[in-house]
## 1
Amino acid sequence: MLKVYINPETVTVNGQMLEHQEKGSALLTELYRKHVGNYPKFFKMDTLSKLGFVASELLLQAEGAPRFEPREDRAVVFFNRCASLQADTNYQATIQDPENFFPSPAAFVYTLPNIVTGEIAIRNKYYGETSFLVLPACDMQLMARQLQNVFLDPMTTSVLGGWLDCADENHFEAELFLFEKSPASTNQLSNRITEQLKNKKMDELIYTLKQQIIEALNLEDMKPEDIDENASLFGEGLGLDSIDALELIVLMEKNYGIKLQDPSQGKEIFKSVAVMADYIQKNRTK
């Protein structure tokens, strides 16, 4: 099962971090220019559609199958919480003032969340099911059941689907997967999605922790990608010392609500970024 994850600061493809410079909506444009670059309609899209378009492109490129050939066996099914909120807000701004009332057709066309499924289907010549479901929250069990139901159609052999949410141009999240039809039960599919979600959260925590360590220790010119999460933080690894250990103790309390009663605990907890992240995940209070 292939997966892509994107938020305003992080991009991963099958668990591997993708290098980028920009954040927020500018990140989506950077990804488009670097990895697609041949679909000018991208610049007309609302942020939700840009997010889905870029995430699906990275996913389909990772799949490596022939592209742009008509097929009826692939469905596109997304879920989110905010529906088309960002596009709705932009359109509302064009009709808010009674003295300056100029409804924007370009903004109005994106005031349905399922427009993004259409954009992806048109781009890839998919003629299977396309649907977009709005949920109160990211309910992985419900999403798994719905995706399993898609395979009740004998024509469908794969689904491009997952979570695709956008509150505004700087707050969004895509967690997309490619599922192939198999005899797996709903529970098995749910477990697979849940496990992917856990791995994603750990990847995010590790990346964030690297950023926090760089900032707390003033490691100028170092990027998160320069730190091996499995390498030792002290000695021959990152080369930290006892003063740095105190900074890490402060970092954990400040950012995660974890108080180390005995500083000697740090010897085990600070073995590596991965070990730190595991301890934080199990003991954090915020």
## 2
Amino acid sequence: MERRGRVYRRCACRDDAGRQLGQSCPRLASDGKHGVWYYAVDLPSTAGKRKTMRRGGFSTKAAASRALADVTNRAAHGVQVDDRETVATFLTRWLQVKASEAKPTTLRSYRAHVDNVIAPAIGHVPIERLRAEHVEQLLVDAMHGRGPVTVRRIHATLRSALSYGVKTRRLQFNVARNVTPPNGPRPEVQPWSAAELAVFLRHVETDRLGPLFEVIAATGLRRGEALGLRWTDLDLGNRTARIRQTVVDVGGRLQFSTPKTRSSEATVPLTERAVLALLQWRLGQDIDRQAWGAAYEDHGLVFARENGAPLRPEYVTRRFVALSKTAGLRRVRLHDLRHGAASLMLAAGVPMAIVSKMLRHSSIGITVDTYGHLSEDTARTASDAMAAALEQAFETAAAAARDHTATTSAADDVPEVTPHGVRAGQDGGPRGDRTHNPRIKSPLLCQLS
């Protein structure tokens, strides 16, 4: 459909009957400042009928022409035009789409960011008039009472929503893409040391959830991944576990979900201690299954309640905190058992790329950002070890040189040289290996002279 547009001037004057004169007011012809400028343009609609868009209130013809050009340009590129849709309305539509795509926990995070931060700040702004300045101010205001990581996630939520708008031809470009979120320092991970972890694991050996904490500490599994393990995911003979599902709490209801990312769906190795802990747990679970009989909820889960139902993630966290306290250890998060597995691997000299693969990060950049300070300590230790080895090599070489000098001096027993250049006790002329004396002419030179 051909899109036509025009600009015109009209006023709010009325005739004696109270009807608005609009464009027919005689003052428009004689007074260039009378009235305001409008534009009108025909746009395509989903029903295939003509849809005329009229907007006014412009003080000059040039301003109305620029607005018309902007609308016709967007329409020419297939971008939907609706200058009355606000950011809040657009985000509501986006969340409805995400409800069928995103994981429950991710969707909950999106909604929290939209409802608590984004909509209150810029929800009133028409989505087509949203600019980078709005996004920058949003992030600055969000920094009050929040850490840089949280603000970056808020920015990521808005950026994702606007990318959807570009993809669906609702927006021409993503104004949040080139806005840099606050780059505050990432808090350094300070998990338990190997000695502290050993104290904790010894302390929980008699606790019902002890095997669960043993497996998390040994494999670096996330909480939901460990709670979603099924016996069919384990190969205890080869000491491996396949990560296929997680347990998440959505509004108080437990659900089974897929792992966090595609890279999270992988096989992880198990330590011998973890295998022994799993075998111990299975014996106890068999007893529970027999005690509950037909009432046992068999989901095939490894770590479950006495009746087979999934364990609540928050209960596991609370139990971990309580056991840490009774063990007399400094307080860390349950997720820090995962960080502890990474730190122990790095301390043992495992390359960062292997650690990243073990933790199933989507990129090695995430591993470097999280554990970079630990790798620096490991690198410093390796550098000191290299320097010590090099110093030892220098000392060994110097000792060997001293021994060689002493042995050579004793074995050669070089005779004393007389003032005439002849060794004491030497008979006859000079040896053939002596340095040639240029003053002594050769027989050939004697004949030529």
## 3
Amino acid sequence: MNNLKYCVFILLLISFTSCDEDRFSSTKVIEFPDHISKLAVTSHLSAPDFDSSNVKLPTVFVGNSLGIVEDKEYSIFPDASVQLYKDGDLLYDFTYDENNNIYIGPEDPALTQGTYRLDVSADGFDALSTIQVMPSKANIIGATYEFEKVPFDFDDDLYDLMKVKINDPGDEENFYAYDVFFEVKSGFNGEIYTNDVYSMSDDPLVEYGYNVGEIIPDITFNGNSYDLRLLQQSSWALNGGDELVAVKVVIYTLTKDYYIYETTRSLNSDAQGNPFAEPVLVHSNFENGFGVFTLNNAVEYRYEF
């Protein structure tokens, strides 16, 4: 009987001590270092732009960095100095647009081959400067188009397959992105209109950017010809009586900084809210601050039926 009392007592003691919160948790205070605010700049400049319906001005955003635990808005600097140089000569000054809180350059700037430098300065901050070399245009040497050719994922319908052959130069590292447009002749009034098309590639080389969609680095075909495989469904773009007249493909060549920025920003976005993902730092190419200045070149190819 006494042994039974001892057993009950021990069980009760274990149950009380096991419920003690301190046995399973601890608190550690993490001290964050003081944050020294620096300029934060973002600018993606392109040459040329083939979308005639949408005039794009070169833009530069200028703000400041905030500490990880700071609960306030970043600042806007309407009196900053923002200048673009080409091969050491001043190309133009950016002016502040108070309606959009960004700096804008002239319409249709002549961004051609060369070395570009973006200089940004504002009172109270270290001046920023970084360089980008305009990449060469993609050398497109031909294309083919086949309707309802390729199955993809779990879709019941087949996708059209367009192959765009690119002759990749061997003396440089290139990163390609693309846009696809359909030229459609209306079966209603005979007018021809252009639609942008959702297109994708089934190439395992593809990496995903945040804003530019799919990116193909030339690491496996550097210096050789490459068939860019583009999948799209023309049946989605055609109404009764419509005729597909042509397919236009715009191939972009990105600087390496643009490629790293887009892919790290995409990974950073995917990791947000995932407790099992490692944090991803978004790429920056300013030494005394944060942000990126990038360039991309572009060429258009039109495939007629």
## 4
Amino acid sequence: MDAKNIRRLRTEAQALKATLHVGKDGVTEEVATELIRQLKKSRLVKVRLRPSSEMDRAEAGRELARASSSTLVEVRGRTAVLSR
């Protein structure tokens, strides 16, 4: 994905609300399955990383992208944006 598309997706993501939350258990199979389901429904998903999650935020974003075969658009604070 090129820089122009990533900028466009970041802009679109600002209007989204987080529809998936990663808790203290981190990126589980259930979280990955739900992310895949949401990505099929909508091409852009915002994920909230709860403070109780012990994973590094950037690593959690990469793990979510790997588990769902998606592209990590950005990680900002405790929020990750993924696109299919």
